[in-house]
């Protein structure tokens, strides 16, 4: 049964990947942020209420440099989602990434590709 792409599926992916291999959510987020910095991607957390529209954040470019911007009020699981989604757009084949972090990013790639692998 395919879980990706539905709210319940997102929860399944999130729960499965958050604590895989005994890694806590805060450790996973720290590793995702460290990977971003190794890739030259700045990470900022700020309040992101913009008028009536609210956003969780994501990858953008500021003066040509990649930046992950996250809403300061996001819970830990959502911060992990934002970071994994942003990093899933980068080629990670040439850089060492821990298996847990790679699995979380790959799960995000599958989820955003409509449930199909690469």
Strand content: 15-25%
Radius of gyration: 14 Å
CATH-scheme architecture: 2-Layer Sandwich
According to DSSP, the number of beta strands is 3
Number of helices: 4
Strand-and-helix sequence, N→C?
A: HHEEEHH
The mean pLDDT is 81
General form:
globular
Report the uncertain regions: 1-5
CATH class: Alpha Beta
How many separate domains?
Answer: 1
- Note the gap between the termini: 19 Å
Named CATH topology: Zincin-like
Task: Name the quaternary structure.
Answer: single chain
Instruction: Please list the strands of the largest sheet in the order they lie side by side.
Output: 1-3-2
Report the structural category.
Answer: alpha+beta
Largest sheet: 3 strands, mixed
User: Considering DSSP H and I runs of 4 or more, what fraction of the residues is helical?
Assistant: 40-55%
């Amino acid at each position: 049964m395919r879980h990706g792409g539905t709210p319940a599926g997102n929860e399944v992916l999130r729960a499965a990947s958050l604590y895989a291999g005994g890694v806590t959510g805060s450790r996973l987020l720290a590793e995702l942020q460290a990977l971003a910095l190794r890739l030259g991607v700045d990470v900022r957390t700020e309040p992101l209420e913009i008028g009536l529209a609210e956003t969780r954040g994501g990858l953008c470019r500021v003066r040509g440099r990649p930046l992950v911007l996250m809403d300061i009020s996001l819970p830990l699981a959502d911060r992990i989602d934002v970071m994994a989604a942003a990093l899933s757009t980068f080629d990670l084949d040439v850089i060492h990434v821990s298996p847990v972090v790679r699995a979380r990013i790959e799960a995000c790639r599958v989820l955003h590709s409509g449930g199909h692998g690469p």
